[in-house]
Amino acid sequence: MALWTTLTTPLIRQNPITLQILGLCSALAVTTKLDTALTMSVALTVVLVLSAFAVSLIRRHIPGTIRLIVQIIIVASLVIVIDQVLQAYFFDISQRLSVFVALITTNCLVLGRTESFARSNPPLPSMVDALGNGLGYSLILVIIGSLREFLGTGALLGYQILRTTDQGGWFQPLSLMQLAPSAFFLLGLLVWAIRSIRTEQTEPTEHEAPRVTEPAE
Amino acid sequence: MTGFGALFLEAMFVENMPLTLFLGLCTFLALSRRLETAVGLGIAVTFVLGVTVPLNQLIYTAVLAPGAWDWAGRPELDLSYLSLLAFIGVIAATVQLIEMVLERFFPAIHGAFGVFLPLLTVQCAILAGSLFMVERSYSFTDSVAYGLGSGAGFALAVILLSAIRTRMAYADLPAGLRGLGIAFVVAGMMSLGFSSFAQMVGP
Any stretches that span the bilayer, and where are they (chain A) (predicted)? Predict the structure, then answer.
C-alpha cells in the first residue's frame, strides 16, 4: 500500500516537472515530435530506476563527503550504456536527440531523486519512487510532445491525421508550435491547468494588494 | 564579421542557452526570483563555462578523440565514448578548484556567488557547452569564444527574467498562474524576442 502511494504521488500531486522544477531542460527541448519525447521518456525512466537501485544498494558504503561524485559517476555510466544502445538500434532518433541523451547525466531529476530518496531508503521503495517520478516526467513530455506535433504538423507519430493545406486539406499548421517559445507557453498553461484543479499547489503571493477602502460619504 | 567575435555573439544571442536551446532551465527558473541571486548565478555560469569548455577541448583533442593516440602507435584507439565521464570529472574538479581558490584569495567574491558554484556541477548548460564543442568540432580559440559567449547569454537571460519576475510580484494574477506558471509564460515571450536575433547571422 505504501509502495502504491510512493508510485502514484509523483504523477500529478508531486509532479517532478510542474511542481518540483526538476528535469526541465530535456523536457522542453525534445518535445517537438512525439516519438523523440517517447524515446527520451523511456531513456530517462530506465536511467532513473537503475541509478536509484544502484545508489540505494551501496547507500551505507558511500562516504557523505564524496556522495555527489559517486552518484554522478553511476548515472554517467548508465547514460553511456543507454546512449550506445540508442545509437546501435535507433540511429536516426538518437541523431535527432543530439546531446540531450548525454545530458540525462546532469538532469536534476535523476540526481534529485537519488539524493533525496534513494540515498536513505532500501532498494525496492527507491526503485518504485524512481519509476513513479519517471512516469510523472513521461506524462508531461507526452502531453506536450503530442500537442506540439499535432498542432504544428497535423500528424501524430508521423501519421497524418488532419490533412494540411499543402496536401489539399483544410488544416493550416501552426508553425509556431515547432519553435522554442511554444514549449514555454504550453508548459506554463499546463501548470496553470494543474494548479487550478489542485489548488493546494498554488504559490502564496509575495505582495498583498492594498485594500481599497470606500471613501466615507 | 567572422571569427572570435562572431562566434561569441552567435553563442550569446542566436543560440541562447536557456531561451532557444532550453539548457540550464532548472536553475534559470528556480533562482530567478531575486535580482541579486540572478546576477550571482549569471557571473558564476559565465566563469565556469569560460573555463571548462576550453579545458575539455584540450582534453578531448589530446586524449579522447579518434586518432589522438597516433603518436603512441595506437591509431585505432577511439576513446570518445568516455568523453561524458571525462567532461563530468573535469567540470566537478574545476568547480571545486575555483571554489577553493575564491575562498582563499577572494572571500568577497566567494561570498557573493559561493552558494551557486557547487550547483553548477550538475547544471545541464555547463555540460552541454562541452558536448556541443565536440559535436561541432571547435578549435581551441573557438571554444573560448563559445564558452564565454554562451555563459554571457545565460547571464543576460537570467538577469532579464529576474527583473521581470520582480515586477510580476505586484501583478494581480490568477491563483494557478502565480509563481512558476507566469515564469514560463514570461520565458516564452523572451524566447520569442530572442528568436528575432536569428537574423543576425547571415546565411
Answer: 37-58, 70-91, 97-114, 135-162, 174-194
CA B64/CA B77 separation, integer angstroms: 9
User: CB under 8 Å, gap of 24 or more: what pairs does B109-112 form?
Assistant: B112/B40, B112/B43
pLDDT in tens, A175-195: 777 777 888 888 888 888 888
Three cell numbers, residue A145: 510532445
Q: What are phi and psi of B121, to 5 degrees?
A: -55, -40
pTM of the model: 0.81
Work out whether the CA dihedral A147, A153, A157, A162 comes out positive or negative.
positive
- Quick one: cell of A124? 525496492
DSSP-derived 3-state class of residue A169? coil
Any bridge partners for residue A133, and if so which? none
Q: Where are the beta strands (DSSP E) in chain A?
A: 155-156, 159-160
Q: Where are the domains of chain B?
A: 4-197
The C-alpha angle B19, B20, B24, rounded to 5 degrees, equals 55
Exposed, middle or buried, A159 (CB in 10 Å: 0-12/13-18/19+)?
exposed
CB B143 within 8 A of CB B57: yes
**Tens digits of per-residue pLDDT, A69-101?**
788 888 888 888 888 888 888 888 888 777 778
Element (H or E) spanning B157, and its range?
helix B140-168
Q: Enumerate the domain spans of chain A.
A: 2-145
CB atoms within 10 A of CB A125: 17
Nearest by CB: B92 against A29, A69, A204 = A69
Task: Look up the ipTM and state it.
Answer: 0.78
C-alpha cell at position B79? 576513446
Q: Which of A72, A84, A193 sits opposite B92 (nearest CB)?
A: A72
**Non-local CB neighbours of A49 within 8 Å, separated by 6+ positions:** A127, A130, A131, A134
Question: Cα-flanking dihedrals φ and ψ of residue B34, to 5°?
Answer: -120, 145
Enumerate the residues of chain B whose CB falls inside 8 A of the CB of residue A98. 135
